[in-house]
Amino acid sequence: MTAKMRWTSFVLGTLLLVGAPSVWYLGQPSASAGDVPEAFIVEPDDSADAAEPAETTAQVEKPEIRVEPEVRAEPEPEEEPEPANVRPAKPVGISAPSLGIDNADLVEVGLDDNRAVEVPEDVQEIGWYNRGPRPGEDGNAFMTSHVDSRTQGRGVLFELRRSEPGDPIVVTHDDGSTSEWVVVARERYTKGQYPLDQVFRFDGPPGLVIDTCGGRFNPSTGSYEEIVAVYAAPADSDAAIAAGQA
Predict the structure, then answer these.
(1) Is residue 186 part of a domain?
(2) Residue 118 has pLDDT above 50, yes or no
(3) In this structure, what CATH number is given to the domain that contains residue 105?
(4) Within 13 A of 147's CA, how many CA atoms are on the CB side?
(5) Would the pTM count as exceeding 0.85?
């Protein structure tokens, strides 16, 4: 056997011993791409709860009561009632052509017993956090799914780690309408350093955050060590236009 053949056999044997998760990790792109828009960035609030206002023993003097002559004011013109704020319809599907996602089902999820966002058991479904904004409202609409499963195989977000700024995303709403989004940034966070305040943003410009597990698979814990998060902005926003031109 030649040296080249021995080296090839060694490499193949090593890959078989390490397993598919490690091969998958070695094939991952860079940890980040693009920049999270400044308007999306929220610094973590580490301050202690605000103190209760101190009680005061100062006495409040009773004001002197005066009776002024009645003056009839001219009636003010009635103002036109402001139109009711109509919320965007709930999201029910999502497409990301660059990732091979074609109108994947979006299901509503809440919080589990540990106060963590629930993740759909079916890896072909994506969960939309229904206690947060809907896509198109102020703040980030948050979506998540398992990257893969030992029994189900690759999940619908398996290729999320390859998402790039400028990639289009289309959300389908339950009234039949659609909203268009553009990826502006991709970040990979070590678990335990996930920017909750930034991801679960409830005000500021509309955004979309989609995440799934990523990084190296840890056999001892049975999970991946990192989280891949993709940030998207409305297709007609300055952030999306800039990402598409980058």
Answers:
(1) yes
(2) yes
(3) 2.40.260.10
(4) 23
(5) no
